[in-house]
Specification:
With 106 residues, this protein is of the alpha+beta class. It is 24% helix and 24% strand. A hairpin with a 6-residue loop joins β1 and β2. The N and C termini lie far apart (36 Å). The relative contact order is 0.17.
Length: 106
């Protein structure tokens, strides 16, 4: 829900991003998976941009009468929280680009 806003923010700040389409399990709706390669000293500013762009909010409804939700919710319609982000921070020992990007040679 927030991927376009988040991508504008991080790319506008000079970060490079790769976006993939993915499908979530719970609501079976489309998601976006975004990969960012960020230098150690720029992780905190990047996380701040993600936090500002990705806000959870109530939207849509789930009908728990659907068999896949029956054991999780009592009868009735329930609001669902959407938006926000899940961030994994992983140290990368090596990163290469083929062919090398012009900025890599500078």
């Amino acid at each position: 829900y927030d991927s376009d806003r988040m991508l504008r923010a991080v790319c506008g700040a000079g970060f490079s991003a790769t976006r993939l389409s993915s499908t979530g399990g719970f609501l079976r709706s489309g998601n976006k998976t975004v990969f960012l390669v960020v230098e150690d000293d720029r992780v905190a500013p990047c996380l701040k941009l993600i936090e500002q762009a990705c806000k959870p909010r109530l939207a849509g409804e789930v009908d728990p009468a659907a068999p896949e939700f029956a054991e999780w919710f009592p009868a009735g319609i329930h609001d669902v929280t959407v938006g926000g982000a899940v961030v994994f921070i992983v140290a990368v020992d090596r990163f290469e680009r083929f062919p090398p990007h012009e900025a890599d040679d500078a």
